[in-house]
Amino acid sequence: MITTEQHGLIIDYKEMQQTIDSKELPDLVKRLKARFNEHIESLSMDKGFSDESKREELEKLFPLLVMQKKGKLSKEEKERESKPEFKRLKNKHSAIESDINCLEHHGLDRCPDKGADGFKRYIGFGVMAYNMHKIGNYLLAKDKVIEIKRKKKIEKLRKAA
Predict the structure, then answer these.
(1) Does residue 95 have a pLDDT over 80?
(2) Phi, psi (5° rounding) for residue 70?
(3) How does pLDDT run across 10-44, given as a tens digit for each residue?
(4) Dist. CA 155–CA 161, nearest whole Å
């Protein structure tokens, strides 16, 4: 189970074995609230986390909550899930699947370490590698923009001379 922030960095992860997503939701919310209390504007999750009894409670904690309902939607639920902000965040949430795939490409497709502790450690290393890769890509893009601006400035000075 991974939690990402708006820039795509993984801010929370947990190895899941023989548990149901919706049962992990209260612990996840506690961890996020403890670390990022006032800085969370929205929370989105896939249908595995859907729990109608917890939805109302979570809507009080998070201004924008995207919790899709399992099964057939009632009229009120269709209305709630068809709001533009809900749709935007739901579409943004689909990037998580891409992030999970990216984790597999950073070494989490197989674990050479032995035992449960080695597996947990390996997950941590994979998350760290993923975040470092994201930050590196950001820095490279930033350097590229700076270089382009520098070249344009030099070209402008040459034309003026």
Answers:
(1) no
(2) -80, 145
(3) 888 888 777 777 777 778 888 888 888 767 777 77
(4) 10
Instruction: Give me the half-sphere count of Cα atoms (radius 13 Å) on the Cβ side of residue 93.
Output: 17
Backbone angles phi, psi at 8, to 5 degrees: 95, 0
Q: How far apart are CA 15 and CA 38, in angstroms?
A: 26
- Tokens (6 digits) for 17: 């074995």
- Alpha carbon 149 to its chain centroid, in Å, reads 32
Task: For helices 115-160 and 95-103, give the axis angle rounded to 10 degrees.
Answer: 110
Residue 45 burial (CB < 10 Å; 0-12/13-18/19+)?
buried
pLDDT band at 141 (very low <50, low <70, confident <90, very high): very high
Say which residue the tokens 């891409």 belong to.
98
Maximal CA-CA distance, the chain: 71
pTM over 0.90: no
Q: At what angle do helices 52-61 and 21-36 cross, to 10 degrees?
A: 10
User: What distance in Å separates the CA atoms of residue 4 and residue 116, rounded to the nearest whole number?
Assistant: 24
Strands 2-4 and 10-13: antiparallel
Which of the 8 DSSP states describes residue 109? T
Q: Given this model, what pLDDT does residue 139 score?
A: 93
